[in-house]
Amino acid sequence: MTSTTSTTLRAALAIRDLDFAHPGGLRLKVPSLRLEARGEMLLAGPSGSGKSTLLSLVAGLLEPQGGRIEIAGEDILSRRGAARDRLRGERLGMIFQTFNLLAGFTAAENVMLAMLFAERPRATHRARSEALLRSLGIEEFDRPIEHLSVGQQQRVAVARALAVGPSLVLADEPTASLDPENAEKVVELIRGTCREEGAALLLTSHDPDLRRSFERVVDVREFAAGGGGEDAR
Amino acid sequence: MTDLLFILRSLRSRAFQTATTIATVAVAVGLMATLLSMRDAGRAAFRRGSGNIDLLLAAEPGPLVAVLNALFHAGAPANPIPFARYLEIRDGYPWAWTVPILQGDNYRGYPAIATTTDFFARYEPSPGQPWELAEGRLFERPFEVVLGADVAAATRIGTGGRILLTHGSGGSREGGHDGHVHEEYEYEVVGVLAPSGSAHDRALFTDLESSWVLHAFDRHEREGRHVHVGVEDLEEVDRQITGILLKVPSRSGSSVGAAIAQQFDRMRRESGLTVAQPAQEVGKLLAVVSNVEQLLLAMAGVVLLASGVGIMLSLTSSMDLRRRQVAIIRVLGASRGKVLAMTLTESALLGLGGAVAGILLAGVGNTIVAASLARQLGLVVPWSFDPAVVLGLVVGTTVLAALAGTGPAILAYRTPVAAHLRPIG
């Protein structure tokens, strides 16, 4: 990290010379990709074109063959083991199409889990999670997550992603199972919350309608190499 | 939110699995605890009974039978010793003390011991703990009787009560009614003993002469004479006993053990009676029992191991669900090490919960069994749980459970995160 410039430090995400070959045949090459702090970017492309894979790489959950991925100025790939997990917990928030909330836990507990594993002071957990949930219109803090409606679960998932005050939120196909009207609402909810919390947003979607509402749109097929393109799986 | 709270919530979210796993462990631990407690209670009961006697003389066929009958009331001795023989033995050596006993009568199945007051003054069922009266006094005249603590408690007879003894062994407790009641001779209860923790608590105590009178009366009946018999009518043939308790004197400068061994050999040669060293007989008995105990303990150990395997299977079978959970908390920043530690803690908690539940189960079970034994048999098996044993069981089970959780924990540790976060639909 000796060579990082001041502009790199400001970026929420900076990828350089990333090279990843999936054992399944998919190959991604990202020469350069930047997302400024508090910026927004839509990562477009059809299903199976590598959007989720790129997000997993950014989150440090997959190991590329080479390159550099900086999150708020810190190279996640140069970190190993618990240090990388810690960076992910502290700087990244993730939102999934299937929410990936934990059944058996209440709405507030699901949000607090993010703070637990990011090792935020325990005394702040409750107040922070309730404030976030309330701002998203959820008052049922102590209701088990499985007793909430799908729309409410979506909001809890958004709250969890932002609980630790991350630099970057990765939203993986959050609208895939929604009709166009609701899809737009959810995207606006995520964008609005990220803006309020000062987090940059990298959102993936195969929905072409969303392209219009984002200033920056990057098609993941640009990064496809080798076998890449639409027919890659 | 804390790590522990997270683990407890996870366990709760799999409530059925958690409950069945804890139940499996609880049954194993309860079994183990019961066996250990029964062993301790049994040993304590036998140790107490043999008391401070060095030698026991009886006309029974073997020393173990003699000890079990005389000191634990397993049955009434069938073979008499003439009282004159007792006097010869008593006067033939400078014993520390000697106590003659005569068994054979009973009250509603509770065995009666006819003896002298030296039985209370000299013999201590638990060495160092002399007899104490809960109420009244010891017998002083013929046809006075002192009740053991359990007899008084079970029959609700106290000082001033009047009872009739049945002649013959066994009585109602063993189902037979071969004895007959001496309605002509009523005994007065003059005292109740405090509990001694020995088998004697379910016995009654009276003097030798009144028992001899009952026997003399029987002898006259058999001979066709229906007459009242008093102490003054006793003949030599009526004066019989069934056992002699002996204490070898301890003299400074010589080994008591050697003196006991010497008198043991001399009595065997000269008395023509069965000579037993109660402590040794109890030791032999416990040695036999301990083989069985070890087998039972080994079985309980196997059950405990099986419950460990149960924990492992339970954790492994839930692994599919768990992988998603692991993937989620990894995304939230939990390290592999944390996942490993949490899974181990979870299995240790299952063991701890099972162990505590098992101890409680054993406690409730043993209390019920002990109450039933006391009610139906008058047998007091005191509820004895060595705190060290309990602690050992709890700690051991928890460690075993943590070990059983190692495999699943490693599986959780290795869970690839990205693969388990893919959209399902």
Enumerate the spans of chain A where pLDDT stays under 50 for 5 or more consecutive residues: 1-9, 226-233
Give the C-alpha Rg of chain B: 31 Å
Order of helix and strand elements from N to C terminus of chain B: HHEHEHEEHEEHEEEHEEHEHHHHH
Q: What is the end-to-end distance of chain A? A: 34 Å
Percentage of residues in DSSP E strands of chain A: 15-25%
Which keywords apply here?
heterodimer; A: 233 residues; alpha/beta; four-stranded antiparallel β-sheet; 7 helices; globular; B: 425 residues; alpha+beta; 2 domains; six-stranded mixed β-barrel; two-stranded antiparallel ribbon; elongated
Textual characterization of the structure:
The complex is a heterodimer of chains A (233) and B (425). Chain A has a 5-stranded parallel beta sheet, with helices on both faces. Chain A has a 4-stranded antiparallel beta sheet with strand order 2-1-4-5. Mean pLDDT of chain A is 89; it is low at 1-9 and 226-233. Chain A is 34% helix and 23% strand. In chain A, helix 4 packs across helix 5 (122-135), helix 4 runs parallel beside helix 6 (150-162) and helix 6 runs parallel beside helix 7. In chain A, helix 7 links the parallel strand 7 and strand 8. Chain A has 233 residues and is an alpha/beta fold. The radius of gyration of chain A is 17 Å and the shape is globular. With 425 residues, chain B is an alpha+beta fold. Chain B folds into 2 domains: 3-45 and 284-420, no CATH class; 55-276, no CATH class. In chain B, 54% of the residues lie in helices and 15% in strands. Chain B contains 13 helices and 12 strands. Chain B has helices spanning 3-13, 15-49, 63-72, 83-91, 118-121, 149-155, 208-222, 256-270, 278-317, 319-331, 336-377, 387-404, 406-414, and strands spanning 55-58, 81-82, 97-107, 110-115, 133-136, 144-147, 162-167, 180-193, 204-207, 240-241, 243-247, 274-276. In chain B, the strands form 2 sheets. Chain B has a 6-stranded mixed barrel. A two-stranded antiparallel sheet of chain B has the order 2-10. The radius of gyration of chain B is 31 Å and the shape is elongated.
